[in-house]
Amino acid sequence: MRSSKSRKVFRVISDGKAAPQRIAEQIKKAIFEGKIKPGQKLPSEMEFCEMFNTSRVTVRDALLMLKNAGLIYVKRGAGGGTFVAEDLNEDRLTFLLTDFIKWKNISIVDVMQTRKIVEPEIAYMAAINATESDIRNIWEAVDELERFFRTKVRFRASDENFHKTLAEAVKNPLLALFQASIIDILFRFLSTVTWTEEHKKRIIHFHKEIARKVEKKDPEGAKKAMEEHLRDMEDILSSVCKEQQLSLKDA
User: Fold this and answer.
1) pTM passes above 0.85
2) Whether 218 contacts 127, CB under 8 Å
3) d(CA 73, CA 70)
4) 78 and 184, same domain (yes or no)
């Protein structure tokens, strides 16, 4: 990418507390939109400094974030420099898709509506395609919910893991990738929500019911159980948001 073209892609931000993060997000967005291609060499640190009107330390911090995320790599020696990763795996693609959803200002209401369309079908297909190993993993995710019942962060992580594990049992990598991104967005919002013990018991109840139907190879039953779970979650979220003065539309 030549410097003149790069200037059209990136916006000046100047130094500040969140400057590295803002630079990293601009570069990630350019990668996602195809303005920077896999394997393409990035501008030098000094060129980035001029483009963003920031210090070299700020640029280095931003590039380190991208390197740690596996989106770029550094090549030493002749022909070296900083390059966009050529092998964007599922974790990196989920990372990018999650950011894409955020940039498009998609709300939690949009995410929940999408879940109501997608997740019952995931449960249906999981009941058809799940192997014995998948079923063990699904039950392990349920067991984690009970084990971490009184731990807010770990209970939420176990809840998230259940839905991702169920999607993986479908044996459709694209669907699993999409589901992982949707769940990541939802659970970012849920990190601001506090469940009561009754809420947690209801979540565990429906997860167990879904797991039972998948184990019995009952696709219609699994689909129905997921539909009931999502309706119940809507009721819970609506109630909790009113009590805790949170807005679903603005999330």
Assistant:
1) no
2) yes
3) 7
4) no
**Taking the mean position of all CA atoms in its chain, how far away is CA 25?**
15
Q: Where are the beta strands (DSSP E) in 29-118?
A: 72-75, 81-84
Phi, psi (deg, nearest 5) at residue 212:
-60, -45
Contact indicator for 230, 115 with CB cutoff of 8 Å: yes
**Residue 160, domain CATH:** 1.20.120.530
Examine residue 186 and state whether it is found in any structural domain, yes or no. Answer: yes
Rounded-to-integer distance, Cα 100 and Cα 184, Å:
12
In a domain, 2, yes or no: no
Amino acid at 234: E
How many domains does the chain contain in total?
2
Exposure of 191 in the CB half-sphere (CA atoms within 13 A): 8
Report the alpha-carbon distance of residue 180 to residue 27 in Å, rounded.
22
Express each pLDDT in 119-161 by its tens digit. Answer: 999 999 999 999 999 999 999 999 999 999 999 888 988 999 9
**Do 68 and 103 have their domain in common?**
no
Q: Give me the domain span that covers residue 77.
A: 18-84
The 10s digit of each residue's pLDDT in 156-177 is 889 999 999 999 999 998 898 8
